[in-house]
Amino acid sequence: MKKQRMKAVALSTAISAGALFAGAAQADQLDAIFETSQSKLALAQASQKRIDKLQDDTDSLLNQFKTVSKQIEDLRVYNAQLDKQLANQRTVLNDLDESINNVTVIERRIQPLIMRMLDGLEQFIELDVPIYLDERRDRVAKIRANMERADITVSEKFRQVLEAYDIEAEYGRKLFVYTDTLSVGGQDLQVNILGVGRVALMYQTLDTKYSGAWDQSQRAWVELDSGEYRAAILKAIKIARKQATQDMIQLPILAPEAAQ
């Protein structure tokens, strides 16, 4: 009986020891499984980080690609616009070249024209009634001197000649008076020269004692009857100087001659 109890205890002890060894073995296996799981999780996390980084890099590259594509498209539009502008500029340059060539031809033609106009103006002044004679001669002389200057453009020379023509035309459209010196009665006297356009040109001494008129047919000054025209000429002089109101005046006007 006693032996049987000892066997039972021994058996129970053996079973307990076996269970203990079995439990220890299972714990080691669990630790190994846990470590393997942790390692796989770390690998998975690292892989996910690489994937996220690749995704971020891909998104960045995609955005860069879109930006560069938009810039390329903008450059294409800009280049197309520049091509149109360059084409227009080439057309303008061609027109300018043609204009420059035409200007050269015009300058060669206009220079002789200016000289002919100046010669005609000078001849006209000498044949015209002696209005501001010295001033007009000086003006033509200055313009003629400018014709040889290289620092004055052809257009400016032409403008000066046209301006002189305008001044000449203005003399025939206004009532004017100025002071000059004439030989009257064998002596040089200061006189007021009165012009009614180019219709009549008269003089009167400053003391109103002598009066006269220009006779274009004789190309000379002719003395007038002071008693008949003295007051009329004096009044006209005052009107020309705006010292009197405009009024009807009887002045000596020579009848026009028939053209030959």
From TrEMBL:
Signal peptide: 1-27
Coiled coil (UniProt feature): 44-99
InterPro entries: UCP028069
Protein name per its UniProtKB record: DUF3450 domain-containing protein
Species per Swiss-Prot/TrEMBL record: Saccharophagus degradans
Pfam families documented for this protein: DUF3450
Keyword terms: Coiled coil, Signal
